[in-house]
Write a structure and sequence with these properties.
456 residues, Helicase, Ruva Protein, domain 3, alpha/beta, five-stranded parallel β-sheet, binds magnesium ion, binds adenosine-5'-triphosphate, elongated, Rossmann fold
Amino acid sequence: MATRILLVDDEPRILSLLNSLLKRENYEVTSMQDAAKAIELIRSDSFDLLISDVRMSPVDGMELLKAARQSQPSMSVIMLTAYGTVETAIEAMKLGAFDYVTKPFKVDELLLTIQRAVEYGRALSENVDLKAELIGRYSFENIVAESAAMRNVCEMIKRVAPTDTTVLISGESGTGKELVARAIHTHSRRRDKRFVAVNCAALPEPLLESEMFGHVKGAFTGASANKEGLFETAHGGTLFLDEISSMPMSIQGKLLRVLQEKEIRRVGGTSNIAVDVRVLAATNTNLENLIKEDLFREDLYYRLSVIPIEIKPLRERREDIIPLVFRTLRNEIGEGREMPRLTPETRAALEEYPWPGNVRELENAIKHAITFAQDGRITLEVLPPKIAAKAHGAARPAGEKNTDSGRAKSLKAFLREKEREYLEQVLSAADGDKEKAAQALKISLATLYRKLPPNS
Ligand SMILES: Nc1ncnc2c1ncn2[C@@H]1O[C@H](COP(=O)(O)OP(=O)(O)OP(=O)(O)O)[C@@H](O)[C@H]1O
Ligand SMILES: [Mg+2]
């Protein structure tokens, strides 16, 4: 991959000189005179190195440097300063510039500085991504658990796995309920026996009953032979009852009896068969509400939820998002191949999106992005449009509340949204004049640019 350099200087002569010099060295160069435009650009595109003049107007190099440090901390920055302005140079270093070169510069010296800066930046950015990948790898049974909430779930799994207690796993769709159930099985003494999953929502009542408990020949029309049920199949192992809330009342009663007696009777059968099965159940609806409506047996609920494990929706544990992204990228592209890079904007969009479909939706979004990614970079444009739209601060439909399905978002995300709304009001009051708006807000123009969505 070619090294990408962003070059900013308001003097056209120097810009074109540097441009041709760097291109001759096989760098991929983007050059511009306007620092405000550069601030916009670095939000959507990533570069290995920024070379910027200090003295420019209306937005100067220091503002650009600050914006760069904020939106792309792993990009190295070299500042070009006029001879004799040591103070500025020192300030630039304090703000995190890699180095400075005084004008007029010696070509060799400049090229050497660039080379060192690029190498340094590479090492740094590899570290950032590596760290995210490593975090993803610190996990239990492939469960990414960077957030306190998920770590807690992992602790619970470790603790309950060796016992034979029933566990009720609850969480929205796509939060990883089956993953947790499998981890419990894998860490139990039953790991060498089978893990059998039944989706209680997938079958109509009579079929579900015979699926779970089996039937004897002639029990009903079409029962042409004896059939073993999944309880028997899972003997010695674990039976995972998925979407338990959909289980019809009649079967709930039978299940309760099996849990108490530890034996089943096949449909139409006359004798009981002893089974040694650990039951795990999952639900994405609140069973207590169903109990109130007489749609779920209270006694069964208490039997199942001896140990409850609740998995929070992804939007309530945002620290897991980026590690999950890296985990999915790694799984998709395979070991040893170079990881695509996320632009800062992409990273922010992924972290802010509410993920109603939770981890499953995230996995699908990343697969989608990989299909369309170019030059090893994942930009906003290759994300599913829904996610990118949020990032662009797209207007919310009227009446939509500032909460995601009634749950709280982080204070930071809320404030950012409010701030953006306010900035846009002030800007429109100033007829779109950004300098005027910045003055009214008592912030620098660069800060205003940083806070506004790109292309606004
Ligand atoms: N913490 C996590 N770490 C790694 N992968 C995860 C995590 N949580 C979920 N996944 C992955 O997300 C996908 C969805 O998980 P899973 O099928 O377990 O969800 P679920 O809660 O059973 O969803 P549903 O209610 O739709 O059945 C799976 O590919 C799973 O491996
Ligand atoms: Mg599931």
